[in-house]
Design brief:
The complex is a heterodimer of chains A (331) and B (517). Chain A is mainly α and 331 residues long. In chain A, 68% of the residues lie in helices and 2% in strands. In chain A, strand 2 and strand 3 form a beta hairpin. The longest helix of chain A is centred in the last third of the chain and has 27 residues. In chain B, helix 6 links the parallel strand 9 and strand 10. Classes of the chains: A mainly alpha (331), B alpha/beta (517).
Chain lengths: 331, 517
């Protein structure tokens, strides 16, 4: 007898709460809605805002943040977090400024490769020593900051000849800043590779349920190390953008980008618990965060309040996107 | 046959301890409860039977205030009540031992028993250990348990922890003057037979001062321990059976609305086993919880390993999939020596594993049927390094069709499927590559209803017929005997005996139990 009398094609009631809740569906559009609302609000506050000039300024400001957030998103999708991205970017600006005179055009790829290697080392520590990524990268943040201070002599390293990184300051088609275009390219490239290969399955499975992923024989450890490696490379690339703009490297230059980057990821709607989310969401999140940053002075709020805003944004966005079913299990 | 519950003529007892009339609960797209009636008399053990999705869990949740019904009434000792929370239910004397245990592992049994109802054990916010020990001991005495109240919970066996849970639930007596109603949701699903006997003794004891609602998908147990059984089907009570003289067959029929299969285990589909060279051959395998395991499994053979909780059979299974480290011994596949440092190595060797915890280990709930099915054998859906959407669609649809997986589409998140269909997707994961040589099935039918079980059994037979070797950790002895060609009995980390189990010459469960304990 093979008549499956009682098998139901639809969900049994016990799994009913696993479907997408209305709140979850809303968060799918949240970053876009926020983006449009912000642009509208800022335009009302300052009619000059919607001009090519100020929009390119926003795009230029956003570029390093987008790249930083994009890399770290991969780690968050795997269920981890990378707190070292900003410190690593700062260190990378110092290294780039120091190496530019000797290495010239090769300095950029070398710095990105070194940053990627540092990321991979943190990934290895996380995987092999079985330390939570939060702790590994918290320690990494401290170590990398100190290294940056030491190698820079605790001061800004000026770049005399910035011609090898100047191309990032060009404009594509007259309006689009090259740095913003490159940031977009980085996001598109990583997102496309992930989407088109088994990586998407592997990353999601690792993020949603690491034990299930492992028992299915997916290369969980490699995926995580890879994510840390890419995140490191992105931090390196963000550093190149910063140096090209500031003509110098500094041991704390990118430090104030950590909170905005985390905010960008969670505002985009990527679940901090892993699995659910995408790089494109972080791109939108980074734009939202940048607009807020640029917009605060426009509406007359002192920039000292910026940090309060990031704190609130992170807590609220996480509250909205958290995978509660998972948290109740993990605690 | 289906006697309306509230007009049961034999109600000589004053008022039922608990009564449910016409309970209705809707979920989006599903009517989980469709007018359920239920009567729990005082001092009786009432069984609740029904397939998955029949509404058992929803009904239980309504009884302890976790679910608010859309319509219908709940009466406690004849009085209509609204139960809004677990505390509310406890105040009315209704308590539940949950399927997943809810004890805090690093606290003592006493602390767990009194957790949330400390009473006199806390004075001015400070624990008074002597009082706590005494109160906890009182609870344990009620059920005649010999557990030390000051033992840390994580040092107790699973069965002991269940006793602690029952002792804990009985604290609701403190909140109400009346005899309590204790609900046990699938309490036996993770217990081995000896532990089950102890539990049943406790349940019979409970009956003296409480009413018990007992839920289990094992009908023989329901008939064994209960006075009366109410059968649910599609959210309705379809009948009541006094257990004296009742047979499982009758309950099956009521649960699924027709007679169950004569050949539940598809024994007639069991084919001959080729035995010139074993597919899997392990010699002297040792690990932290097992020693000197020898095991041969031929292509097309199903070998079941049985043993009580702690026998080490799960760990042997996990060692064969590269999860549990081994300290000695060798593993050969088709004569070739292999090492299994991790799950990837096992997959590469053509070994597949279906974990016991389907929801947390077997599948990735939010991911689609297609992604879950292709998670392991990525090559099957890829062209070069890239996923080929057309190839994937064809492959997945073919397997959905072949295993008759009921899903709205291949892109539906797997968590929306019923348990049986989820399990079929998990099984398909190992089949799509076409290179599966050995399947390790750890309780593959756990939590599945009869129809779904039968389909999993049929699939196992089909795979065996195609030359797949299978190691089965069965959900019950009956299942092991029904499915296996050979049974290994493990006790305390060793294989104590091996029993041939050919079609037509099956051993009896009693023969096996003797060796297990």
């Amino acid at each position: 007898m093979s008549t499956p009398v009682a098998m139901q094609p639809v969900a049994e009631p016990a799994t009913g709460r696993n479907g997408p809740r209305p709140a979850k569906r809303l968060t799918g559009f949240m970053p876009l809605i926020a983006l449009v609302a912000l642009v509208a609000a800022l335009t009302v506050a300052d009619p000059d805002f919607l001009t090519p000039r100020s929009l390119t300024a926003v795009a230029r400001t956003a570029a390093p943040l987008i790249v930083l957030a994009a890399g770290a998103t991969l780690i968050v999708l795997c269920g981890g977090i990378d707190l070292s991205i900003a410190a690593l970017a700062s260190l990378s600006t110092v290294l780039l400024a120091l190496w530019l005179p000797n290495l010239g055009g090769m300095a950029t790829p070398v710095v990105i490769a070194v940053a990627a290697a540092i990321g991979a080392v943190q990934g290895l520590a996380h995987v092999l020593l079985r330390i939570p990524s939060f702790i590994v990268t918290l320690g990494g943040m401290s170590i990398l900051s100190a290294v940056a201070l030491v190698v820079s002599g605790a001061g800004t390293v000026r770049v005399v000849d910035d011609s090898p990184v100047k191309w990032l300051e060009l404009y594509v088609g007259g309006y689009v800043p090259m740095s913003a275009a490159m940031a977009l390219l980085v996001v598109a490239l990583i997102a496309a590779v992930v989407k088109a290969t088994p990586l998407h399955s592997w990353i999601s499975a690792t993020g949603y349920s690491e034990s299930a992923a492992r028992l299915a024989g997916t290369p969980v450890d490699l995926v995580k190390i890879g994510a840390f490696c890419v995140s490191g490379a992105c931090a390196g690339f963000a550093a190149v953008m910063l140096v090209s703009r500031q003509f110098s490297g500094g041991p704390t230059m990118a430090d104030n980008l950590l909170l905005p980057a985390v905010a960008a990821i969670v505002v985009g709607g990527t679940a901090i618990t892993g699995g659910h989310g995408s790089l494109w969401r972080s791109l939108a999140g980074a734009l939202v965060v940048t607009l807020l940053r640029v917009g605060l002075p426009i509406v007359g709020v002192p920039s000292a309040y910026e940090q309060i805003l990031y704190g609130v944004i992170i807590v609220v966005a996480v509250a909205l996107t958290l995978d509660w079913s998972k948290v109740s299990i993990i605690k | 046959m289906s006697v309306p519950a509230e007009r049961e003529p034999t109600t000589s007892a004053p008022v039922p301890a608990l009564e449910v009339r016409g309970l209705v609960k809707h979920y989006p797209g599903v009517k989980a409860l469709d007018g359920v009636d239920l009567v729990v008399r005082q001092h009786e053990v009432l069984g609740l039977a029904g397939e998955n999705g029949a509404g058992k869990s929803t009904l239980l949740k309504a009884l302890v205030g976790l679910v608010t019904p859309d319509a219908g009434e709940i009466y406690v000792r004849g009085e209509a009540v609204k139960l809004r929370s677990v505390v509310d239910a406890a105040n009315h004397g209704i308590g539940m031992v949950f399927q997943e245990q809810s004890l805090v592992p690093n606290l003592t049994a006493a602390e767990n028993i009194l957790l949330g109802s400390e009473g006199a054990a806390v004075r001015r916010g400070v624990y008074r250990w002597d009082v706590m020990r005494r109160l906890a001991q009182e609870q344990l005495d009620k059920i005649g348990s010999k557990i030390d109240p000051l033992a840390r919970t994580d040092t107790l066996s699973f069965a002991d922890r269940q006793m602690v849970e029952i002792a804990k639930v009985l604290r609701i007596e403190q909140r109400s003057q009346h005899p309590p109603v204790i609900i046990l949701d699938e309490p036996t699903s993770v217990l081995e037979s000896k532990e089950i006997e102890t539990l049943f003794a406790q349940i019979r004891r409970l009956r003296e001062f409480a009413s018990v609602v007992f839920v289990s998908h094992r009908l023989d147990e329901v008939l064994d321990v209960c006075d009366r059984v109410t059968v649910l089907r599609s959210g309705q009570s379809v009948g009541e059976v006094a257990t004296a003289g009742a047979v499982p067959r009758e309950l099956h029929r009521m649960m699924i609305g027709s007679t169950g299969s004569d050949d539940h285990y598809h024994e007639n589909a069991a084919g001959p086993v080729e035995a010139e060279q074993p597919r899997l051959s392990i010699r002297g395998l040792s690990g932290s919880s097992f020693r000197d395991i020898d095991l041969d499994v031929a292509a097309g053979e199903i070998v079941a390993i049985v043993g009580v909780h702690g026998s080490g059979r799960e760990d042997v299974c996990r060692a064969l999939f590269g999860i549990e480290p081994t300290t000695a011994g060798e593993i050969r596949m088709d004569g070739k020596k292999i090492s299994l440092p991790n799950t990837r190595a096992a997959c590469a060797a053509g070994i597949g594993y279906v974990p016991a915890e389907r929801k947390t280990e077997g599948m990735v709930g939010p991911m689609s049927v297609a992604e879950n099915m292709t998670l392991t054998k990525q090559k099957a859906r890829c062209a070069g390094p890239f996923v080929a959407p057309k190839k994937q669609a064809g492959l997945v649809d073919r397997w959905i069709d072949r295993l008759s997986i009921r899903t709205p589409s291949r892109d539906t998140p797997i968590q929306r499927l019923s348990g049986g269909n989820q399990q079929k997707v998990v099984l398909a994961r190992w089949l799509i590559g076409g290179d599966i040589r050995l399947l390790l099935l750890d309780h593959p039918t756990r939590g599945l209803d009869i129809g779904a079980r039968s389909e999993v059994y049929r699939l196992m037979r089909e795979l065996a017929a195609n030359g797949v070797a299978t190691v089965l950790l069965a959900d019950s002895l009956e299942e092991a005997i029904g499915m296996a060609d050979r049974i290994l009995v493990m006790n305390d980390g060793r294989v104590v005996t091996e029993v041939a189990c050919p079609n037509g010459g099956k051993p009896s469960p009693l023969d096996l139990v003797k060796e297990m304990v």
